[in-house]
Amino acid sequence: MSSRLLDLSHIPSGASPVSIATIRLSKLLRTHLGDLLLQHGNIGLPSWRIYTGLAEMGEATQKQLVTHCRMEQSHISRALAQLETKEELKSRRCDEDKRARRFRLTPTGQKNYQCLLPIVEGFYSAVDAALTSDEIKHYLNLTERLAKAAETSAVLDRSIIIKPA
Questions:
Q1: Whole-prediction pTM value?
Q2: Total number of domains constituting the chain
Q3: How far apart are CA 151 and CA 97, in angstroms?
């Protein structure tokens, strides 16, 4: 089992070939998309995900972005600070919770998002074009099954109590 791009010629002992391939593919996709975003928009992947979140929601708190974008708080926080410094988004105090801030894209941020959107869509289209529509459906079904297996395994692992000998 070997692939030059994913380098599956050696799978560590005890590791899952499916997990290793998935992790490596995810990293490869993130790296290539990140490179495109840096090259064409001088932003990183976390900033792009904030762009898409705010483009969809209009305005959101940091907590809402963490949930919507499925990113870690620290990555969101760092990207928000960078985008605000570059005046690509603005924030205001949240009416409901005075400790929170609500973020929205500025006209500059909206323009950058619109300029990058066709580039990102082109990347995604090229990736999807590698598979037929039936293969895409099958792949998505398989990934859902793997996600459920991983979730079940994680729940089982938390229920195991190891007692010292």
A1: 0.81
A2: 1
A3: 33
